[in-house]
Design goal:
- The chain starts with a helix and ends in a 9-residue tail after the last strand.
- The longest helix has 30 residues.
- The strands form two sheets. Strands 3-4-5 form a three-stranded mixed beta sheet. A two-stranded antiparallel sheet has the order 1-2.
- The chain folds into two domains: 49 residues, no CATH class; 93 residues, Cation efflux protein, cytoplasmic domain (Alpha-Beta Plaits).
- It is of the alpha+beta class.
- Helices cover 47% and strands 18% of the residues.
């Protein structure tokens, strides 16, 4: 899901940038009195973006200014939401653990990720492991990426991940469940020569 959001974000940023560059280029071309096509909205240095007639056209209408202000306010709110979404943390900073005595303890998310990575990388056939905690503090989820050696069995790696690393993490934190998305990839290697 986050990969899709990143792609949508990049596409929207690219389109917005392209639109702003095209609009700015049109205004600059007219401002510098460059040769522009006949369909171009501005023709020369004396031309304006909005003529006096366009600016005064809706002034006497009672609905015009509230609609303009509401639309601009909506654009500002959407831009602020988009800006804040860029700084949102994708990873959990901490996991909330019920200690059983009515109190709660917290475990740093990065510490739990490091332990899971070490346990997963210690498995036979795993060259490298990456773990990211997502979700909520009370209901974390994990994303695990395993880089497998050429001789490793994917089924054995998944079984070992589920029975060893994830079970240890779940029981040590006291979490009732730890949903996990695992992605497996093989190490790139040259084919062996047969003689």
């Amino acid at each position: 899901m986050t990969l899709v959001l990143r792609r949508v974000n990049r596409i929207l940023l690219g389109l917005l940038g392209l639109l702003l560059v095209a609009g700015g280029g049109a205004v600059l071309a007219a401002g510098f009195d460059l040769a522009v096509p006949s369909w171009w909205p501005w023709y020369g240095t004396s031309d304006v973006l909005l003529s006096r007639a366009d600016r005064l056209r809706w002034r006497d209408e009672g609905w015009w200014w509230p609609v303009v202000i509401a639309a601009l306010g909506l654009v500002v709110l959407l831009a602020l939401w988009w800006l804040l979404a860029q700084f949102r943390r994708a990873r959990l900073a901490e996991v909330l653990i019920d200690t059983g005595d009515g109190e709660a303890a917290t475990v740093r998310g990065r510490a739990l990720e490091n332990v899971l990575e070490a346990d997963a990388a210690a498995q036979d056939g795993v060259a490298r492991a990456r773990v990211a905690l997502t979700g909520r503090r009370t209901a974390p989820r994990t994303r695990v990426a395993l880089l497998l050696e050429p001789y490793a069995s994917p089924a054995a790696a998944l079984t070992s991940l589920a029975t060893d690393a994830l079970t240890h993490a779940r029981t040590s934190t006291g979490l009732p469940s730890l949903p996990t998305e695992a992605r497996l990839r093989a190490v790139r290697h040259r084919a062996r020569r047969v003689t």
